[in-house]
Amino acid sequence: MQRRRRIDVWEFEWDDTNLEHQEHGLTPVLAEEVKDLSPKFFRNKPAKAGSHRMVGPDINGTFWTIVLKPTAQRGRWRPITGWPSRGPEIRRYRST
């Protein structure tokens, strides 16, 4: 991940395609929890499907990393996939 970015995420765009990417436990409800509980945003790695990663805790304190892609509508982002955050992702969240 690169340095932290400031982006506005007001809502998510869900459809059958990205709802199928719940293999790591990501759900629309969980994504909303992370969005609403002080996430931090980082540019995603080059040549990946999403442009940013949203990292933050859910209401139970479990950290999640959610890959996002912007849509044509300002503030509306499309979750591509997500997973429980790993050590480096949590450390990066805490250090910025």
Helix/strand layout:
Layout: E1 4-5, E2 11-12, H1 16-19, H2 28-36, E3 40-43, E4 52-57, E5 63-70, E6 76-84, H3 87-95
Parallel strand pairs: 2-6
Antiparallel strand pairs: 1-3, 3-4, 4-5, 5-6
Model description:
This protein is α+β, with helices and mostly antiparallel strands and 96 residues long. It has one domain (4-95). Helices cover 23% and strands 32% of the residues. The chain has helices at residues 16-19, 28-36, 87-95; strands at residues 4-5, 11-12, 40-43, 52-57, 63-70, 76-84. A six-stranded mixed sheet has the order 1-3-4-5-6-2, sandwiched between helices. The longest helix has 9 residues, at 28-36. It is globular and about 30 Å long. The protein starts with a strand and ends with a helix.
Distance between the termini: 12 Å
Strand order of the largest sheet: 1-3-4-5-6-2
Q: State the secondary-structure class.
A: alpha+beta
Largest sheet: 6 strands, mixed
Basic shape: globular
Strand element count = 6
Task: Give me the strand/helix succession.
Answer: EEHHEEEEH
**Mean pLDDT, as a whole number?**
90
- As a percent range, the share of strand residues is 25-35%
- Percent range of helical residues: 10-25%
Number of alpha- plus pi-helical segments: 3
Task: Evaluate the radius of gyration.
Answer: 12 Å
Low-confidence stretches: none
Count of domains = 1
